[in-house]
Every structure is written in structure tokens, then in C-alpha cells.
Amino acid sequence: MPTPYPSGEHRRVLLVEDDDGDAFLVRELLAEVDPDVELAVVQSVDEVLRRGELERADCVLLDLNLPGTTGLDGLRAILQADSVAAVCVLTGLDDQHLGIAAVAAGAQDYLVKGKADGEVLVRAIRYAVERRRAEASLLRLREEQLAAAESSRLERGLLPSPLLAGSPVRAHTFYRSGRTRAVIGGDFFDAVLGPTGTVHAIVGDVCGHGPDEAALGALLRVSWRALVLAGVDEPQLLPKLQQVLVSERHDRSLFTTAATVALRAADDGSSRLHALVRLAGHPPPLVLGRAPHTVAPPVGLPLGVRPNVRWQAAEVVLEPGWALLLHTDGLIEGRGADPDELLWTEGLIDVLAAERDRDLDRLPERLVERAEQLNGGALVDDVAILLLSHDATPSDAAPAGVVVAVGDRA
């Protein structure tokens, strides 16, 4: 006779039966077929609940004809106490309709007394346990899916929509979290038209990859946007953002890198724009065109490393048709054309030169694709890309790549 359960698998069965003769018969049938089944006998549902027997039982065999209970009341009481209990009900010869009703009410199976031998009894117990286990697994999976969907909706709400209406600037973006099954990571970006007509942009990266860092990155982005919209002077944006970081970080060792750009119209009334760039331990922006190159002011310390830091700025003039690329280091920390070297900014410049005819709407995603091809697989870190350009259709927005350095200023 085959073993009903895998070798070494133990089952504790709780029999709720007030008839000593029926309880003795069930015990003998189980012992004959599978002596590893441990049977505990309780004479009423009230006793089951009072003694906490459900917590120790893999399966419940429940007589529906117990004193003090009517119809399915006993079954309902057990399932109310433990909604995932595996219950098989026992009925008399003339109560098969009650057994069917019990299954509809949540029992896993029903057995008719006098018709169930040991094999049938053990098989019913095994199937009841496995079905309930499968149902519980499906329920947990569904709960996890709902929680993940809710988390994704919340995280998507934290991703920015650049506020550039009324400005001569257009934003093309890409964002992907390096965390498994996450929408946002510690990287962040934003672009906002300030109250004086200056367009401000930021790309930042909170060190670390957990949900706490993701939450901090979202907080820093929202805080930066609030500072811009409140009209805080551009030189004070990074110092104010550092104050937020220091007050909100959960670990004193956490720091954040950032690159900021402030775009304003030229004083001579031309269509050129002046770009003021500051770096806080972050990769520099790149001016696109036939010969892409960096805008590289002195690189200051990351935010949160030391108080009272000053971040120097470089100012450049962007001619009509300009495009400026800001990104986090996740884009350039994979392998480059030389497998022994990382891509870094130099390799990204080569990629941009090869993609110079790509329309700007498609370019951020294409840069990630090219970086993954060179890396030989997916990039493991968060990737945030903010590509700013003259507000024109993609076909008219081919970057001129003309930049004139006009000096640095604090």
C-alpha cells in the first residue's frame, strides 16, 4: 500500500466528535493506513476554540451532528476563528445534502460515516490540506500583487512632470530604478520654470539603493521644486537642499550628489540662452552636437558631507538649437567599449557622437540601450536622464552643439 504522505511528513488531525464509538473507529482507520497521522479528539466546537486546538491542527474532521450546534453553525464558528483551516465534515447517511452545503460554505470536503474506509479518509485529509495550502498561497500572492500595485501607483505619483509651460525649454526624460520590482530609486530629476522666467533643472543621486534612499530622493526633489517656485536665489538652492538632506536623512553617513542648471535668456534680446551649471560630486552635463562635450565647473563636495560648502558655477552660452544632457552615474558605470574599462563620461561622449542623428524624444532610451549593449547586460544601478532642448518639434531640434564659455563665477 503506498504511503499517503512523503516520507517523514507528519500530519496532526483534529477530530471534533462527541460519539466515542465513531471516534474510536476513525482512530483505527487512520492507524491502519498511516500510523504517522497524529489524531486529537475534542467533543465540541466550543472546546476546540477554548483550547486553541486549531493552531496545532493541519486538518479538522468535523461531525456536523454535535450537540449545541445546528446545521453548519459549527463549521462557520471554526472558519470564523481560522479562515484558512482545512476542514472535512462528517455526515450521516441521510445528511449528504448537508455535506454539499458545507463544502459550499468553506469546507474542503465531506465524508459519509460508514462509507469511508481508511484510504478514503486519509486521502481526503491529504487533499484538504493541500487544497487549503494552495488557496492560502494564492491568497498571499494576490495580496502581494495588490500591495505591489498600490506601491507602484504611489511611486509613479512621486515621479516628476517637468513644469516648463511658457518657457523656451523642452524636457526629454528617462528613469529606471535599479531595485527589483520598484518604480523609483534614490536617483531623482526635475525641471521647473521659476517665477522670474529662469528655467531650473536638477539631477541627483542619493547614495544607497534601498526604499529609504528612494523616499529621501523623492523628498529632496519635491523640496528643490518648492525652493525654486518660492523664488529662492539660484546660488542658495544647493545650500538649502543640503539643509533638507541633513535634517531628513536616517543615517548621518548618507550623502547626495547633484548637478543643477539654470537657464535664462541672454541680455541682448537674442534667442540664445545662458546656462549656469553647478556640480556637487556629480557627473557633468554634456552639450550635444557633432562634437559632444562636457560643461565642467569645479566639482564641489556632495551634499551632506560638510557644512558651509560653496559650489562654484560655470556659465555657458547656448546657441539656438541647443541640447543639454544631465544624467546620473548609473548610465556610465557599466562596461564600455573596452571590457576592462567602465563607460564613464568619455565613453558616453563616443556614444552620443554615434547617435547624433537620433531625434531627442528617442535619445535617452537609446543611450540606455547602447550602454546595456556595451555592458553585456542590464545596468544594475538606478538611471535618471534629463535631456533639455530648445522647445521645438523633434525634427527641428537637432542640437547645434555651439557653446561659448564666458567664465566661472561663484
UniProtKB/TrEMBL annotation:
Keywords: Hydrolase, Phosphoprotein
Response regulatory domain mapped to chain residues: 12-128
InterPro entries to which the protein is assigned, alphabetical: Bact_Sigma-Reg, CheY-like_superfamily, NreC/VraR/RcsB-like_REC, PPM-type-like_dom_sf, PPM-type_phosphatase-like_dom, Sig_transdc_resp-reg_receiver
Modified residues annotated as 4-aspartylphosphate in this record: 63
Pfam families: Response_reg, SpoIIE
Descriptive protein name: SpoIIE family protein phosphatase
